[in-house]
Every structure is written in structure tokens, then in C-alpha cells.
Fold this sequence. Notes:
The two termini are 39 Å apart. The chain has helices spanning 27-42, 75-84, 103-108, 139-149, 158-171, 182-192, 198-206, 211-223, 240-245, 291-299, 316-329; strands at residues 2-3, 16-21, 46-51, 69-70, 87-91, 112-117, 129-132, 225-228, 233-238, 268-274, 279-285, 302-303, 307-312. It has 2 domains: 2-206, inorganic pyrophosphatase (n-terminal core); 211-333, Diaminopimelate Epimerase, Chain A, domain 1 (Roll), CATH 3.10.310.30. By secondary structure, it is an alpha/beta fold. Guanosine-5'-monophosphate (5GP) binds at residues 22, 98, 119, 282, 301-304, 307-311.
Amino acid sequence: MKPISEIYPLLKQPAKAVITMHQKPDADAMGSALALFHFLTKLGFEVTVISPTNWANWLNWMPGCKLVINFENNRQKTAELLDQAQYLFCLDFNIFHRTKNLAPKLSEADCVKVLIDHHEEPDMASFDYGISNAAKSSTAEMIYDLIVESGNAHLIDTNIAECIYAGVISDTGSFRFASTTASVHEMVAKLKQTGFNHSKVYNNLFDNFMENRLRFIGHVLTNRLEFLYEYNTALVHVSKHDLVKYEIKTGDTEGIVNIPQAVQDIKLVGMVVDRDEERKWSFRSKGDFDCNTFARKYFNGGGHFNASGGNSKDSLQDTIEKFKLAIKENEHFLQ
Length: 335
Ligand code: 5GP
Ligand code: MN
């Protein structure tokens, strides 16, 4: 993989580009993809954003989101767009299998493949150009860097600023995580100069749910949250019945894993959701507990040092037991 800076001169020749991100895109995946979409469009590129799956309704406010194609409902169109594309930009993931059923299509695509991502352990061999930096707060910040470093800071408008800001506040837990460097705050100061309304973005992301989600959170915190104080760990599980009863949709479970971190001394939170196809895990830690390695070792996943995810084909009960054994094995890291 050649450095991202080597594509900067190529941006002067507009071409056809496809942008994609990980399955079930979150605000950073969608925000970074749409920021890049607006930027490349301004440079004269013909750009399409393709999501591997559906996404949460509460991302639909993002400028450009209505133009995003869901691969699962548009397989033929996706194939055509990938055939015609000269560039494929892969954002907020670093190995094709994170795009689920879209993965084989991305591997086969015969075009210049560019990686922009901040997760651990990238599959560099699959990309022609790119940047992988696990120290970055968000992929959205990396799109900002690309725009500025390629000499195009003057093209940042309110649309681009909103998309980048959404990605950054989402992935930094509203500027609370360790990845929130001085340059993140400097970037936000520059973005504010476009005049974009940051309160509106916050509101759209965090105060934009239906009543059922709030009731669901109440239920989960009361009935589905267990504290394993011996291991400074909290465990949340959500059953299929819970998902049906509270009419839970894509994105409604996001953020819940962060809540038990508010309890004194809790170092690790594991949350598992019993989805149809798999048991989906989310992990969050504070300090020196490595969630990326934990997810890789026990749950077929990965991600960041303090936030990762994984999955299991075991039953809900079995995967919970496996988690409990895993934290026992990691007891010394959890003290
Ligand atoms: P979340 O818990 O919000 O779904 O994910 C936390 C972080 O871990 C995100 O950066 C996400 O991209 C990553 N992640 C979630 N699930 C997986 C997985 O199954 N495999 C890998 N490699 N990363 C994951
Ligand atoms: Mn991200």
C-alpha cells in the first residue's frame, strides 16, 4: 500500500469513484463517506456512496445520505458502479470481510483501491494507496486531513463540516476518549469557521430517537445488566424477545454499551445482542485493557484498543458463559 499523499496529484484528474464503509455504518462511517463524497464531487468526480447494508434511520439527516445506495437492495446497480469505477475508497474498516456480502465484489473490483481507516491490524495487501492510523480519533478526522493536506481546505463547506463533526463526536464519545488530541480541537475550530451549526448535529445524533428506544434502555439497565465486580466488568445481554418487544431497529442498540462505564471502577463492558444470524458483541474499556486483542482472541472480531466488537455462532447462554470464562482468564488485566 503506497502512502495516501501519492493520490493527491491524481485528484486533479476527475474520475468515477465509489466510496464504501463497514456494514451497519455508524456516524463515523457514514459521516466520513459523505464528507469525502461532497469533497470529491466538488473536485468534479462522479461519486457514489455504497453501504454494504442498511443503516440507522437517525443518520438520514446527514447531507447526501438520501443518495447512498444500500448494496443489499441494489446488487445489480452496485456491480455496474464498481465495474465503471476508477477508484474505490474504503472508509472506517480495513479488511474486506467487514463489509459482509459486499466483500467478494470489493476484492474482485478492478480499480485503484484506497484505504482510509483508524482500526488496528489493516490488511494492507488489499489496497493500492492509503492511510491506516489507529491513533486517529475517527475516520472523519482523516478525511479532514486528506482535504487539507491535498491543498483543498478552501473547499470545506457546511455540508462537509457537518459530516466530519458527526463522525468525530460519535467516535470520541463527544470529545471524551483519549484519542481526542489537540489537533482534533484545532480541526473543530476550523470547521466552526464555515458557520455550521454544531448543536444541530448533536441534536440530530443524540436527541433523535423514538420513545421505544428510551423504554428499551430502561428495561436493559434494570433487567439485563450484571456487574461482575470481582473483574471490574459489566455485562449486558439483549435477547431476541427484547428486540421484538421493543421494536428495536438497526442503530437502536448503539451507545448502550457505554452506559455502564459510568459506574465506579468498571474497566470493561461487554454487551451481546442475540441477532438472527449471530450473537453480536460490543466491548468498551477504560485505561489499559486491550479490547481489540480480547475481541480477536475470543469473539472472532477486532477494532480499537478501548472499543471493539465481535460475533459468535454459539447460543446466547453459551456465548455469555464464554465471556465469563474469558474475563476470568484476563483477571490480571482487569485489576
Ligand atoms: P461497535 O461496538 O460500536 O459495533 O464497534 C466498536 C468498534 O469495533 C468499531 O470501530 C467497529 O468498527 C469495530 N468492530 C465491531 N465489530 C467488529 C467485528 O466483528 N470485527 C472487527 N474487526 N471490528 C469490529
Ligand atoms: Mn470509526
